[in-house]
Amino acid sequence: MEIIIRPSPEECASIGGRIIADLIKRKPNAVLGLATGSTPIPLYSELARMHKDEGLSFSEITTFNLDEYIGLPGDHPCSYQFFMREELFGKIDIRPESTHIPNGESDDIERECLAYEQAIAASGGIDLQVLGIGSDGHIGFNEPGSSLGSRTRIKTLTGKTIEDNARFFEDPNQVPRHCVTMGVGTIMDSAALMLYAFGEGKAEIISKAVEGPVSAMVPASILQMHPCVKVIVDEAAASQLANIEYYKEVYQNKPDWQK
User: Fold this and answer.
1) Residue 256, exposed/middle/buried by CB under 10 A (0-12, 13-18, 19+)?
2) CA-CA distances (angstroms) from residue 168 to 161, 163, 189?
3) For 69-78, 97-106, 239-248, which range has the lowest pLDDT when averaged over its residues?
4) Model pLDDT, residue 28
């Protein structure tokens, strides 16, 4: 696990954008796993800029999103289909048929979950999965207590997650109670992972996820077991890390061949 600490979300996004661009240059038909919420917005802005200013093409890329609310239509401004069109897909040259988001309106959600797993496998697997982290340690919508080997499935959101997400809705009572989410096991099958966190509000959970014990009560802590993870955080989110100075030293003194 590599911990990268930068002063601002924009600088963090720049690093992630370059990592993704390098992947696409090596493998133009790469499979990206994508996240939603406020955390990845700086990264998506950087990718859109790179497409516009540097000619970075996403025309052969396939994407799979982590999750979607159950019961929200795709044109609802709080659905993740809407979010992805607004924040990324509508700004790059990706083919609509190459983007995949769980169908929270399916008449058979269990079948939808199985089909989603099969689609990921049929694509060859996710090369790089982008993640945020909830204030309770969830990744995707895998709430505390989720099986660390879980697959795509229905989840009931905790009161804390509903409270955190209420800011996106006009009425907090409109926040859905259920979702479809990739499982922890599904996420861990990705070849590489890139987790972002910004702000003091994420400092405690980043400390637990990165330096604490691996526990289902902090689902993100399982990332310690993955062979290729980059945790990219701003100074505020890193502020409670016990080894913060060491992480900075490691990053600043990486040999050229690692850069």
Assistant:
1) exposed
2) 12, 10, 30
3) 69-78
4) 98
The answer as to whether 137 is a domain residue is yes
Within a 10 A sphere around the Cβ of 141, how many other Cβ atoms? 26
So which residues are the catalytic ones?
67, 136, 138, 143
Instruction: Report residue 196's pLDDT band, with 50, 70 and 90 as the boundaries.
Output: very high
Separation of alpha carbons 186 and 204, rounded Å: 25
| 259 inside domain | no
Q: Which residues contact 206 (CB under 8 A, 6 or more apart)?
A: 133, 197, 231, 233, 237, 238, 240, 241
Per-residue CA distances from 194 to 2, 37, 241 (Å): 10, 15, 18
Q: What is the pLDDT of residue 172?
A: 80
Interior angle at CA 120, CA 67 and CA 37, nearest 5: 25
Q: What is the CATH number of the domain that holds 98?
A: 3.40.50.1360
Q: Is the pLDDT reported for residue 230 higher than 80?
A: yes
Domain count within the chain = 1
Instruction: Rounding to the nearest 10 degrees, give the CA dihedral for residues 30, 143, 2, 229.
Output: -30
The pTM (predicted TM-score) of the whole model is 0.94
Exposed, middle or buried: residue 92 (CB in 10 Å: 0-12, 13-18, 19+)?
A: middle
Place 259 in a pLDDT band, splitting at 50, 70 and 90.
low
Q: What is the pLDDT of residue 173?
A: 83
Residue appearing with tokens 């019961």:
71
Answer whether residue 257 is part of any domain.
Answer: no
